[in-house]
## 1
Amino acid sequence: MSRKIVLIGGGGHCKSVLDTLLRNNEHDEIVITDNDIPVGTEIMGCKVAGNDDVLPELLKAGFSEAFITVGSIKSTKLRHILFDKASAVGFDMVNIIDISAVVSEYASLGKGIFIGKNSVVNADAVIGDAAIINTASVIEHECRIGDFTHVSVGAKLCGNVRVGNDSLIGAGSVVIQGVEIGNSVIIGAGSTVIDNVADMTTKVGLVK
Ligand code: JB2
């Protein structure tokens, strides 16, 4: 059976996810929806089919899978809206995992998750829906990553770290073992987190 997928959002995150899809080579057809990019524009050989109004038509045309390729830095609001919209239309919200990533067979994954190149998700880790485990990040054993949380490029979470929903662990950050980070937290790039972080706070540097 042919596999067809629609990527929702045609910017930088889309390019990263699309590169993985093309490397994995499991789909027969890939199209993109975007609010601002003209219909018919090609991104890495894949066409923009229109804005999100075309999603029901795409489903009818056999695009049964969808993935949110709008990324998130400070807010996950748009990703929530688009995820709910695509789910309501009836798409399967699939996971996209680069062939170079190492994901333990003992890890649990929700749906709509991206795991980028050279990332590691170790045994007994739990990754929530629509999380972004970005390029070269490490999610060690027994970590819990909440829904819509983004672990940015090169971040390293040691064993048994908890991160709530809608949070951002900035690029290159290190979180030591056992730390609990709440919901809607932003940890700035390059931080070292050695103590717990409360909901809805922004921290950068040495977090103790
Ligand atoms: O409602 C929408 C919508 N709103 C904006 N529906 C659809 N289908 N697309 C939408 N967009 C489109 O998302 C914009 O027109 C634009 O083309 C794209 C966002 O692209 P941008 O490159 O600005 O950001 P991004 O979300 O792809 O990437 C961010 O997050 C990543 C995780 C960046 O900050 C990256 O650096 C980061 N790696």
## 2
Amino acid sequence: MKRRSFLKAASVGGASVVAAPAISQGLIEWRMVTSWPKGLPGLGMGAERLAANITAMSNGRLTIKPYAAGELVPALGCFDAVASGTAQMSHDAAYYHTGKSEGCAFFTAFPFGFTASELEGWVKYGNGQQLWDELYQPFGIRAFMAGNSGTQMLGWFKKEIRSVADLNGLKFRAPGNQGRVLQKLGVTPVTLPGGEIFPALQSGAIDGAEWIGPYNDLALGFYQVCKYYYSHGYHEPGAGLQLMINEQAWQTLPKDLQEIVKVAAEASNRDMLAEYMARSGPALRTLVQQHGVIVRGLPEDVLMACGEKSNEVLNEIYAGDTSPNRIVKRIVEDFLKFREDVIPWTRIGEQAFLNARRLPFEFKLKA
Ligand code: CA
């Protein structure tokens, strides 16, 4: 819609008409498939904004047409679509594709891994981007970070979780490695795209679900089925989204358009995080005050058990890497090294401040 109105605008202005022949010669139109339901706040709208930004920044030389989940390919089909060239671009989460390589998970989130800013630090100023390029290179894909949800919620439960035993026997929507962690604690993990979670909760096909956080979870209406909303989203402390690009298509872009795509992805990375930060608090208030949602944190012993199982999963991934270039092992090693370097700082920096802010001191205007 924006694309059409942009092109229309470009063709009616006098100056643009003069410039039109030169522009139309180099006009490129790309498809961007996404994993998100149409119009989904945050992820879906963020992907649409990214597409519109690239189109606008390139003055229409590179026009990106976004597709919601299922419009061109299924929600979890972005990797294959971009690898095959069905779409030149996609917006989704890398950890949906651990079937391609276990290394993918680390570029979204690993349980007890990185916060949003730690992940960004690793990818941009650590070895993250280089390892990511190497991981995707055999598939003919490259990727950039393009969004982050911030800290997620552990998810929605129909009953209270008082002990590890309460997890036993639950069918719970949790993709990727969180599914594996929970499985070790007796949960049957289920992977479902966002748009299919609510009907599955309603029909009783699943007993609970994680999705994102208050902003998106409110929009999808999970509170209508589950009343307990658990924090300690240790599984996705800052879930990164990715912009995947078909490598052959990328190589056809002139350098300036490549730069526009990179910078637009970077802008969208920040923009999405800002949106989640701004919208999550009011959404949480609505869930609690209007819908009677009960917010809980996991008991410490359950959290410890999840941590221990996360370590087991990490070790399984490490041991399971049989690639000749040890790419998954090297990602795990670098993930652990960066974690070791960054945590002493975030602990004394951000975490110390957040703890300080929990003190009963309050701002109160005297006038
Ligand atoms: Ca999630």
